[in-house]
Write a structure and sequence with these properties.
Helices cover 80% and strands 0% of the residues. The chain is mainly alpha-helical. The chain starts with a helix and ends with a helix.
């Protein structure tokens, strides 16, 4: 049961990043404008896409899971700090707390690993 819940948990954690990363790829110009409106250089968008889409896929498949989880935890906290600090706006506060909660989930994943149903476990068994 533990490995099944780790698999489902990894996929659920990763899904928002995969979808968001893909959205930034398909809506590149709009994403760049949104970042710049928040005071973040649009030149960082390729790194954001790699973090979200690539990191999300890595976590979902359990590839370099601990590294990807720590990276996405840091990314979530940075995104909260840059984009969701208008606490007078309840939706921004909820988004801030969502990012903090996701960071916590990623840190738990980094501490416990991806479980048996992962590329990391498969690679470990075949060494």
């Amino acid at each position: 049961m533990k490995d099944v819940t780790l698999l489902v948990g990894r996929i659920l954690l990763a899904l928002i990043f995969i979808i968001s990363g893909w959205g930034k790829i398909s809506g590149y110009a709009g994403s760049q404008q949104y970042m710049e409106a928040a005071g973040v250089s649009g030149a960082l968008l390729p790194l954001v896409i790699v973090a979200e889409f690539g990191g999300g896929l890595a976590v979902a498949f359990g590839l370099l899971t601990r590294i990807a989880a720590v990276g996405l935890a840091a990314f979530s906290l940075l995104a909260a700090g840059f984009f969701h600090t208008d606490f007078a706006n309840q939706m921004q506060f909820i988004s801030f707390m969502k990012n903090v909660a996701m960071a916590g989930g990623f840190l738990v994943l980094a501490a416990h690993g991806p479980g048996a149903f992962s590329i990391d476990a498969w690679r470990s068994r075949h060494r």
